[in-house]
Every structure is written in C-alpha cells, then in structure tokens.
TrEMBL record:
GO terms for molecular function: methyltransferase activity. Keywords: Methyltransferase, Transferase. The lineage of its organism: Bacteria, Bacillati, Actinomycetota, Actinomycetes, Micrococcales. It comes from the Bacteria. This is Class I SAM-dependent methyltransferase.
Amino acid sequence: MSPDLRPPAGQDPVARAYDERAAEYREVAGDLGLMDPRDRELIRRWREETPGRLLDAGCGPGHWTAFLHGGEGRDVEGIDLSSAFIHGARAQYPHLSFHHGSFRTLPQASGTVGGVLAWYSVIHTPPAELPDVFAEFARVLAPGGSLLLGFFVGEPRVAFSHAVAPSFFWTAEALSPLLAAAGLELHWSETREREPGEISSRPHGALRALRS
C-alpha cells in the first residue's frame, strides 16, 4: 500500500469540518432511532454473520460501534478522523474502544479483524485515494473477513455538495474492480431509493466484499 498522503488527522479538512459540526451531526444522525430500519437490519445481519473482531471505520459519534457491540458484547473498535466525534463517543460509550486517526493507516495488526464496517465513511475520499483505503481494509481483515460498505449511488467519481464536506457518488459496479485490486471480492450489493422524510434524498447503495 502506498503511504498516506493526506494531512494528519487534526489537520485534515474533512476532520475539521466534522469537528465544527459534530454537535449538529449528533442531533440529526447520531442516534440509531434516526437511522433507516432497513439499515439497522442489514448491519445486524452482517454482525451476526461475521465472526471475530469488528472495526467501525469512520465511526462518527459511535452509535454504530455500540450497535455492533450489541447485547452479546462483541469485540469491536471504532476509528474516526474527527477528534470531536471520538471525544463524544468515548464519553457516551466508555466501555468501548475508539481511536482518533485515519483508516488509511489503521492501528490494527494485519489479518486480525473479522469484519470492517465502513458505513458512508468513504464518501469524502477522493477517487484516486480509494484504492489505498481498500488495501488498508484488506490488510487488517483476516482471510474470509468481510467489508460492509455504505455509499451514495450516482455517476461514479462525480463530486456533489454534501452538507459537511465534498463527496463522491459510486456504484457497486464501479467499486468492484477497486475492491478486487485490493484482494476483496464483491459478494453482494443493493440499491434503493430513499423514503420520504429521510435525512438524505440521494439513492442508497451498500455492498459486501470478502477478503480472499
């Protein structure tokens, strides 16, 4: 994998943008009750079907990390660029482990993670940098490990104005060769339109890829 070319976490413009709006984000999207029930069910099934340690890459305020931990007390960690998110997550979920840093340089040892959840957390990643991100996800995943990725569906690599920071559309078909280059095989994908009243009106996409 090539080195992380982005600024350190505290200097990253996406991190700064989320730091500045962390409280607002928690109000509108930082609680499981605000999430689409279909997303909760998808991530619940993935959690139950994925053995081993789990990593919430781009964990935000930690609500999905706590969901992954679940009633069974799964071994799970979260990581995020935003120091404000990590501070809040540690305060709200003191029984869980959260790291402040980039998922381009994950602290986990190679082959030690059973599953990586990247739920709308690579949407701000410039397309040219995404192969390195997938390579890092693949590095920490054990053979047979699983990546569950959420994204906005649209013309691949086209930027759009997100409420916090510039973002990029993708499709599962366009992501598949990037995943394959990192040793991740596309196993399943879905696309669906949004329901009235959802936080975003942009079409939803998700995929699951397996580490070879």
